[in-house]
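User: I'll paste a sequence; please echo it back and then give the predicted structure.

Assistant: Echoing your sequence first, then the prediction.
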Amino acid sequence: MFKTSKLMAAFAVAAVASSTVATAQDWPKAKPITFTVAFGAGSSTDIIARVVGQKVSESLGQTVVIDNKPGAGGSIGAQLVKRAAPDGYHLLVISVSYAVNPSLYANAGYDPLLDFMPVALGPSTPNIITVHPSVPVNNIQELIAHARKEKLSYASSGIGTTTHLSMERVKIAAGVDITHVPYQPAQAVGAVVAGHTQVSSTSMPPAVPQVKAGKLRALAVTSAQRSPALPDVPTMNESGFSDFDDLTWFAFFVPAGTPPAIVERLNAEINKAMEMPDVAAKFAEQGLTARRNTVAEFNTYLRAEIPKWAKAVKDSGATAK
């Protein structure tokens, strides 16, 4: 009886292994690939998914379906893909919220290190701190001095976003109080342009056109290096702060258990797509930049980002339901 049980177990393991090999060999011929986008149509995440998805589709000769599943800062989409079959036909396309949400929400519904396999880090953009032209400051240090004399408020892309957390890091480091006013991402820049707040902390894409039009004054970007989109704007580190490299990044994941061979192939296809001149140009229009990365490199980066944003969430006191 014992020998029979061991034999049956061996057959079961062999069957699973055989099925995995077959899945990897058949991929991507069996059916369309679904990119589940964790944010709504027209969002930066959606634009990236559609641009990359089209190139991956053309390269693999297989349809890529874009399925928008917004909600709970990206957690709804993540939970759906977490439950999907780990067969290479289900990808999650999400922003840096992937690394933030497990600390921000009491229950984000997924474990960022256990429930998914990282595929590729997509493009990223710094956050940018801007002011209405009527505010008499030209840099971050002048903003801090002004905030000590007058009551100011700032718009961000929402509670717990990196735009919110970046500005909270500035406030904590400088010891100043600037009131946070959360907006939907598309409305945050408009709030300061209209004068509803004096300051904004947003991602680059919506802010760059307004800065170039003279409707906003840019004070600093939160990346370690200056942004090619606004090369004259200094970094936070150049502005008297240290250890700032806060990016709004976008990335691709698959459910845990997806065959490694498929993960590596997807990584290669996504990298190839991002390096195409027309894709790079499209990203540049949005203030986004991308660089080639391996699965291992992205995994290392992700494991540093999760505790970094967990600390920022804790220090800021931010919470979301």
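The domain at 2-124+249-316 is CATH 3.40.190.150 (D-Maltodextrin-Binding Protein; domain 2). DSSP finds eleven helices and nine strands in the chain.
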